[in-house]
Amino acid sequence: MQDLFSNLIPALPEQETLAEGAVLLRGEALSHERDLLSALAQITARAAFRNMVTPGGFTMSVAMTNCGPLGWVSDRSGYRYSPVDPLTGENWPTMPECFLKLAQDAAAKAGYQNFTPDACLINRYEPKNKLSLHQDKDEKSPEHPIVSVSLGLPATFQFGGLKRTDPVLKYALQHGDVVVWGGPSRLYYHGITPLKDGEHPLLGRTRINLTFRKAA
Ligand code: MD6
Ligand code: FE
């Protein structure tokens, strides 16, 4: 059947450059999906998803947790990386081997050798949730890239420039897609538009995003 339609629906390229330093690796995480999702369930059993509060006092619609030596946290006093989950007072769960391998393999494919992430921020989107345009600038090692893994419902990723007012391009991110992002575009503004409702066979009405960083 696939042959019947392959001339009507052109396949998207396996690798696409979004900007200098930023590469979309389509389907890169697909072969690991079951391992990734079972590791995720173990993490969230210990460090539950929660809606953090911004320094300005707004509750984020996207729910978050972390694994690895450092986790990204936000509250009324600001954004920072912390070894401790403020909800439990315990360290964040260890970064699973399958997470680390995926992140390092993807970084290497994109030309970033020796990526040694010490933080993995895990975002959970439900329909209508969005992430406003922002820069990732809380990391002390911006010479390292960020590796971002999309699982579950598709999302529209907005990708701009160094200024908030720069024009933004939009990209569809599907289950299994990985974006590796660094170098000249490491500090570009980006965001996720309100998630469209749908049903994913493994994740239901949810999108999960894993972002691996070298934070320290
Ligand atoms: C998301 N991602 O995809 C949100 N940040 O749900 C990010 O904010 C992000 O994908 C830095 C680098 C890659 C990203
Ligand atoms: Fe970001």
From TrEMBL:
Name of protein: Alpha-ketoglutarate-dependent dioxygenase AlkB
Binding locations of substrate: 72, 79-81, 138, 164
Family according to the record: Belongs to the alkB family.
EC main group: oxidoreductase
Keywords: Dioxygenase, DNA damage, DNA repair, Iron, Metal-binding, Oxidoreductase
GO BP field: DNA repair; oxidative RNA demethylation
Fe2OG dioxygenase domain location: 116-216
Naturally occurring in which organism (per UniProt): Pseudochrobactrum asaccharolyticum
Binding-site list for 2-oxoglutarate: 123-125, 207-213
Cofactor(s) required for function per UniProt: Fe(2+)
Note on how the cofactor is bound: Binds 1 Fe(2+) ion per subunit.
